[in-house]
What we know:
This protein is an alpha/beta fold. It has helices spanning 15-26, 38-50, 65-72, 99-126, 148-168, 188-192, 197-204, 213-224, and strands at 6-10, 30-35, 55-59, 80-83, 130-135, 173-180, 234-237.
Amino acid sequence: MAATPIAVITGASSGIGAATARQLAAAGYRVVLTARRKDRIEALAAELTGAGHQATAYALDVTDRAAVDEFATAFRSLAVLVNNAGGALGADPVATGDPADWRQMYETNVIGTLNVTQALLPALTASGDGTIVILSSTAALSSYEGGGGYVAAKHGEHVLAETLRLEIVGTPVRVIEVAPGMVKTEEFATTRFRGDTEKAAKVYAGVDAPLTADDVAETITWAVSRPSHVNIDLLVVRPRAQASNSKVHRTL
Ligand SMILES: NC(=O)c1ccc[n+]([C@@H]2O[C@H](COP(=O)([O-])OP(=O)(O)OC[C@H]3O[C@@H](n4cnc5c(N)ncnc54)[C@H](OP(=O)(O)O)[C@@H]3O)[C@@H](O)[C@H]2O)c1
């Protein structure tokens, strides 16, 4: 009997990562949930196991290279890696943005993705049919006012995805970039505005149906489950009410 394929999901403690873990588990993967908040991934792993799926939790900070390398030693063969851990900090203009925020966003979104991808690439290759998903954003493709540091970091992730795809062509690993627009998750905007829920709510104010974490998880699961020779290079997904990063229809 063939072994159950394994999918590692980073940032599985909330939002898109948690929804993706649920959907990949339902699709038949043994899911390995990682994030810094151990209690949350353990609770999700227990929920999935209780529902008859295979799931384990492993506390991991993607910016800690030694910890990532240690984590990777558990895998000889890996089918799917979803690089989802990341996010935004602040919405200041370039003129006044805090360099520490810019550095942290680069560290988490770009170096975090680099760390995990480098560490798990041998296992993905050894599987004979590996898939790497990189959760960038529409911020990876065009700029918007107040988005400077996040836009720069997500552009970095986009470049990482494109370059890696060029470099590993001919190996049995594909690189899929999923770039969502506005997704209403419980924590993304609250984290961005450091717990200010009023500011966070304004992001989605008057928008008729922003994307949900489940919408993006479905998109990821669809892309991952295409036949092996089909590579969805870049998939941009936005809510109907959003035509660009700065053109959003609001009923206010
Ligand atoms: N929401 C949107 O509008 C939107 C749009 C486009 C793209 N995205 C991207 O989609 C991804 C998920 O976003 P989301 O909306 O689901 O946000 P979220 O709910 O805030 O989730 C972010 C996840 O990343 C994890 N994380 C953050 N820093 C980490 C670190 N250093 N090491 C390990 N895990 C870390 C968090 O877990 P812990 O805190 O437990 O570590 C959390 O599970 C992010 O990359 C985000 O940039 C979001």
